[in-house]
Amino acid sequence: MLAIILVAFATTNCKKDTQQQQSPSVATADVSFNITNPLQGGGLKSEVSDTIFCSNLLATYVKIMIDNETQYRILPVFYIGNIPWTTSIKLPLGTHVIHEFLVYNDNNTPNNLADDILLEAAPHANSLFAQYVSSTLDREFIVVLDKKNEIKIDVLCFQPSYFLKFGFVYFYLNEVIIRQQWFFGDFCIKHKAAYDSSDYALQTGWGANPGPYIDVPAIIKVEVYHNGSLVGTFTNDDAAHHYGDKLSVLYADYKQQVDHFMFKLYILVKQGNAFVFVLFKTWNFDDISNIVHGEDGVVDFVLGTCYDPQHPPDYVFPPWLNLPASCNYTIVGGYAPGSLGGYVDAQLALIPWGYDIQNILYASWCADHETTINVGQTYFMDVYSSLYPDLLPAFVQLDAGKWSKINWLFNHLSWWPNVLWYEPQQVIWMYDNPDWDGSADGGVPALLDPAYPTRAGLMKAAAEAYGNNYVPLPGGWATIIFVPHGTPSNAPAPAVQTMIIKIDP
Q1: Which domains does the chain have, with CATH numbers?
Q2: What tens digit of pLDDT does each residue of 61-106 get?
Q3: Are 65 and 100 in contact (CB under 8 A)?
Q4: How does DSSP classify residue 238?
Q5: What is the 3-class SS of 273-290, one letter each residue?
């Protein structure tokens, strides 16, 4: 394209308002081109700029190459309000092809082409930037008689460093701004050996870091949706990005319309014995990204707790728990109390190998006090992590903040020496909806006169004081929730009591 432009400079008449004339014997019609206003401000601020290659200059003229012509036509630009238009040209009736369309500012030197500034251009088909426009070059259009011939061509803001990505050729002017958003994340892996067969093991220095849990660059995927349609997928899961490097996401913003974008962030994690991309975050915005990011322009996040609380990232996702979608749950050996220190003992089954819960016996508690569950009966339960309350069924989300407080309690029972088995159960029931009235129920003793705080009351007060947004650290405990399989997410209550266990996250 650079060679083409240089040739154009050598062969085009120096007057910027020159037009090629058509033979008067050929039937012609007027054709004009509507141009959108270039982005005010902008420019390539840095390698992590959210808007790339846009100038704040206004268009002065366009250069187009049509059909088999060997010289550019140069059309002056004028403005009606804030909308720029080209002057009309006469073309023979019939089909024509646009090969190049370039938008220039004359740099306040109307008779000197050498210092003019290329503002915008239309990408060719098969070029890197073709995916961001609705029409590419070469482009056919038809000139007809007795009709206003206005040609619309998508153009992108131009910067020389991105020259080869255009194809090259530029025409229309429904301006499209290519915007850029950067992402980078850390993944706190609890057991390094569990990921030795994943793409994480391809990262530099993997073998030199023994664990037991480590902080590694997250391998991610970002899906970009424009007005509800998937228009692009970006990932650093390849050698070119060194399996986890900072990821650049480009998207096309049509300047003369409101564009709704949705970004979906997926992180490569282990689920069962497979490594899959799991959705962790969705952002919605119009036109220019408003996704929170630091001064460096990069959206950074941590999956887990391996970060300095004094310098938190833009987003923190709780530790990933590798849980099955469902399993069998059976209360064995009676209740109140169980043999493992909980309200009951629960036998889990039908869990394939590789998950963070296994087919063994766990101490278990009741999450609600009104619904019943039978001892010795096997229930097929859906499995949820309390660390992601937004994914819980609606009835479990009632006072969703209670789960961080219950997690805090399980991790701080040492504050109360010789905790009795029923005291955590009493605290859990205090968070039930509808409220537990404190009377004896299901083998759990009654609370004493509320005017005199019991130890369970002190536990709840501490959880309220310290448990907001609490996230367990590695080596601590996280609550796992069991809900009868098939319970509608919007059900007001479950048919079987909601049960919980705790595991190391």
Answers
A1: 2-172 (2.60.40.3540), 179-317 (no CATH), 326-503 (no CATH)
A2: 999 989 988 788 999 988 877 777 888 888 999 999 998 888 899 9
A3: yes
A4: S
A5: CEEEEEEEEEEEEECCCC
